[in-house]
């Protein structure tokens, strides 16, 4: 059939299962956007207020559903606004299809409007190369069908991630006789299975362990491995801890769940995982915040503990810790293979040897509950970060989806808000940009319209994507935004105070006059956008207000006043952050922690 370049892209996206495209129009992409109106290529287009939000929306869509979404922008500033979103997807292995316009092929290098050309002609794809699995640039209209199926293959196979396809303006309008290649004939079939010898070694280690812990990362969620992971933990009596992105891999009301590890993990997650003689990591790459900067005994102790490392990407095996068994394979297939190799007799013997360990697990969980409860159940006002989360958990459906923003809310949600199913806790665990959670929540709600979706953000985080309230209202996307207003970047202030002994530019204050705290009246701003909104300052109003927001069936915002001085999560792990030489208070403690790091 004869199609323009824009029609080829639109038709391929439609045939490859893309249900939504988000973005902002511009002269560099007009011809492609027009193709979404053609018969057979109709895909609903979500117009956002900022191009970065388009990528974050696609990110949230995939994390909630396991299906990719597309985003699209013009050239120049519209395109460069996507970099933070693409980097977030890249670090967390989120497949996202991004298509942008580009200078016409006969104009590139001449300095056309919005072109980057001083070091290389049309240099924008050189930027996206660093934050995508691959960046493609169309040179002819008839090669676009090939580029499209190659881009989808790259995006979805192996370790998934975002891709970028640039289509120059003239190629969007030129036509050729082409065939859209069926994707099912251009993709690998099945998953990567583990080496049987490696599985045997892993089974032997797990059965001989006295204190086994399974550490679930984001890869366990992506591989849909939660059922096998839980079954294995139950069969051999292993505790299960999680990273940020692994939260939800096991139901957090399960007796073997010990919560998250890391700098802001749970005390029981860190204590039990650090005491493990065998850790089996499933889809985890051991970032510094998850591993407490590799300080021995803070979150992980390898050595003397032994590591079974399961990951789809060989790059991660042995990167930060030496492995006893490294398995490059699909997480679910590997866990199922391990399960199949353990007999009921072996499992019974292993369980009988772990009575003391499992008793330690329950004691550590009880200690964590005693630590957490006073903040979660507090009735003081302004609120702790934890109090609104406790209220939300009481009124939210068990399968509701919570989106955690960056900063204090991210750590507080990880510690305080239990989730019971995979893909119901969504956060940008690695890149952690502010401004991510609101558009990600809109993407999650588009993907899962029958589920409750709540984004929990601080006011500083919220301000960076505040205009997307308009996107929610215009498109009638009934997500709920829970804004914890502590009038500043309080996680940043807390770090400055700890490591510098003072703070700068992290509070929102009037800088002339009396220096009182400054805040936008966020709940009133939301009303002006057309949202239903509430402001809560009294503890007894929390549950009823949050329930009203969830039940209203429309985009809604709840602003809660949060204390600046009791705002953050518990710091149960360690973070390698050096203090200036002139701040002597932290020097000795930092040197001690640095000496205990194991990654070198």
UniProtKB/TrEMBL annotation:
Residues 406-560 form the Thiamine pyrophosphate enzyme TPP-binding domain. It comes from the Bacteria. Residues 199-338 form the Thiamine pyrophosphate enzyme central domain. Keywords: Thiamine pyrophosphate. The keyword Transmembrane helix does not apply. The keyword NADP does not apply. One of its GO terms (biological process) is isoleucine biosynthetic process. GO terms for molecular function: acetolactate synthase activity; flavin adenine dinucleotide binding; magnesium ion binding; thiamine pyrophosphate binding. Residues 4-117 form the Thiamine pyrophosphate enzyme N-terminal TPP-binding domain. GO terms for cellular component: acetolactate synthase complex. Pfam families: TPP_enzyme_C, TPP_enzyme_M, TPP_enzyme_N. SUPFAM superfamilies: DHS-like NAD/FAD-binding domain (SSF52467), Thiamin diphosphate-binding fold (THDP-binding) (SSF52518). Belongs to the TPP enzyme family. PANTHER family: ACETOLACTATE SYNTHASE CATALYTIC SUBUNIT, MITOCHONDRIAL, THIAMINE PYROPHOSPHATE ENZYMES. This is Acetolactate synthase. The lineage of its organism: Bacteria, Pseudomonadati, Pseudomonadota, Alphaproteobacteria, Hyphomicrobiales.
